[in-house]
Design goal:
By secondary structure, the chain is mainly beta. The protein contains 1 helix and 9 strands; from the N terminus they run H-E-E-E-E-E-E-E-E-E. Residues 1-25 form the signal peptide.
């Protein structure tokens, strides 16, 4: 009986230490800003203001692009647009976010793609200007480019 109480006490102490450790654990990394606006040119498919929304969990990050100025040329089914978003790193090089996530959209509807998955490192500063957004819809490639730097500034991971 005495051995059982000792084991029980040790288990309770270990549990208390684990809870205390969680209380003082660092929170998940956060990207700033969480959203930014760009002005995109998609050639014959339109162009205008678009919003990029970013999330981060450790080295995994996602970006979602939505724009009421960029329209779908035809109706598209959910998760049918293959998208590659290339962002420029302030330190040189690029980071690619890709995926096939999108809501169903009617012909002429505002475009939303993402979340697109990518990998980031602590301190990465990513900017849409100088990069590109490529969407493949029914085999047709649509390439968009930012016409100016994003506002309020680059994403910092």
């Amino acid at each position: 009986m005495r051995g059982t109480r000792t084991a029980m006490g040790a288990a309770l102490a270990a549990g208390a230490l684990a809870v205390t450790g969680l209380a003082f654990a660092p929170s998940a990394a956060a990207v700033t800003p969480q959203s930014a606006t760009i002005n995109a040119n998609c050639g014959v498919f339109g162009g205008g203001a678009a919003t990029l929304t970013a999330t981060q969990s450790g080295t995994s990050a996602t970006l979602t692009l939505s724009s009421s100025a960029i329209k779908t040329p035809v109706a598209v089914a959910q998760d049918s647009i293959a998208t590659t978003l290339t962002m420029v790193k302030a330190s040189g090089g690029t980071t690619v976010f890709s995926g096939t996530r999108n809501p169903a959209m009617a012909a002429g509807a505002a475009v939303t793609v993402g979340p697109l998955a990518g990998t980031v490192a602590a301190g990465d500063r990513l900017e849409a200007y100088g990069g590109s957004l490529k969407m493949v819809i029914f085999g047709v490639s649509v390439t968009c480019t930012a016409t100016a730097k994003q506002s309020p500034g680059p994403f910092v991971f």
